[in-house]
Design goal:
Elements lengths: L17 H16 L9 H18 L12 H10 L5 H14 L3 H5 L3 H8 L5 H18 L8 H4 L7 H11 L9 H9 L8 H9 L7 H14 L27 H5 L35
Helix pairs in contact: 3-4, 3-9, 6-7, 10-12
Length: 296
């Protein structure tokens, strides 16, 4: 005769000890209260967020403008070529003497290379830039009657002129909408998660698809303004950023409001801007000429 518990039937489970029961209850509660992984942002949601950021930036920077001093398309073209690998401020401090010496494409086309190089030396890479300026001036003189063309197809054929430079000139001298993808613009649109592209032309194409054509030029100015003043490459001033609630990259920089305020630049930080001759509605101070002494 088999004794109880040995007839093949499963033995009853042992009751859990109080310690194990408590541990299991905590694990269950933690699992129930754990935040779920955020759903990937849909394209429609991204576009709505991107356009809202643009509207917010328009309120923050109603005075956004090209930060190169110029009086005509030729001066803007030359200044933009000079702006490679340097600041707009340094270009603006250099171009008064340049345009005093060579006010037209015909004048610059006939320049002595060494004399041209010496004038633009403060902008860096002056030999390569002088070669580009001589080449584009000669092309304007010989192929376009001394006038800057108003088509991107023609502009990009000029020596030293790529799509970025062409879009700057078209948008600000001819009123033709365009996206200007410089280092600030590329950095911010990737932080904003509007694109993951690194190649400037691919960035341009993807951003153009998000915004109406009428917004392209001013969007470029607003994003660049924000990148120079608040959303810096190394230490973004997240704690002083007016669009922080809309930014997926919030927290990459300083989040303490008081510390962040100390990182603000140009008019946002109470300092001079980059233009020696800023627009009338610019709320900051004009920059000082080259070699001028400034207050510490």
């Amino acid at each position: 005769m088999k004794t109880a518990g040995t007839d093949g039937a499963a033995a009853p489970a042992k009751p859990a000890t109080p310690a194990k029961a408590s541990k299991a209850a905590k694990a269950s509660k933690a699992a129930a209260g754990a935040p779920r992984a955020a759903k990937p942002e849909s394209r429609l949601a991204m576009i709505r967020r991107a356009r809202r950021i643009n509207r917010e930036l328009a309120e923050v920077y109603p005075y956004a403008h090209p930060e190169l001093d110029f009086r005509n398309p030729f001066e803007l073209l030359v200044a933009t070529v000079l702006s490679a690998q340097t600041t707009d401020l340094r270009v603006n401090q250099t171009t008064p003497a340049l345009f005093a010496a060579y006010p037209t494409p015909e004048d610059m086309a006939a320049a002595v290379p060494e004399e041209l190089e010496e004038i633009i030396r403060p902008t860096g890479f002056f030999r390569a830039k002088a070669k580009s300026l001589l080449g584009l001036s000669q092309a304007l003189r010989d192929d376009f009657g001394g006038e800057v063309p108003g088509r991107i197809e023609d502009l990009v054929k000029l020596p030293g002129v790529g799509r970025k430079t062409a879009n700057v000139v078209l948008g600000n001298a001819f009123g033709v909408p365009g996206i200007t993808v410089d280092t600030h613009f590329g950095r911010l649109v990737r932080r904003f998660k509007w694109t993951e592209q690194e190649d400037p032309e691919k960035v341009e194409a993807e951003i153009c698809a998000i915004f109406p054509k009428s917004e392209w030029t001013m969007l470029s100015h607003r994003v660049v303004f924000h990148g120079r003043r608040i959303c810096h490459a190394r230490r973004p001033a997240c704690g002083a950023c007016p669009i922080a609630p809309l930014c997926p990259a919030y927290g990459e920089g300083e989040t303490d409001p008081e510390k962040a305020k100390k990182l603000l630049k140009y008019e946002k930080g109470g300092q001079p801007g980059q233009r020696l001759s800023p627009p009338p509605d610019y709320p900051g101070l004009p920059a000082a000429p080259l070699g001028a002494r400034t207050e510490p």
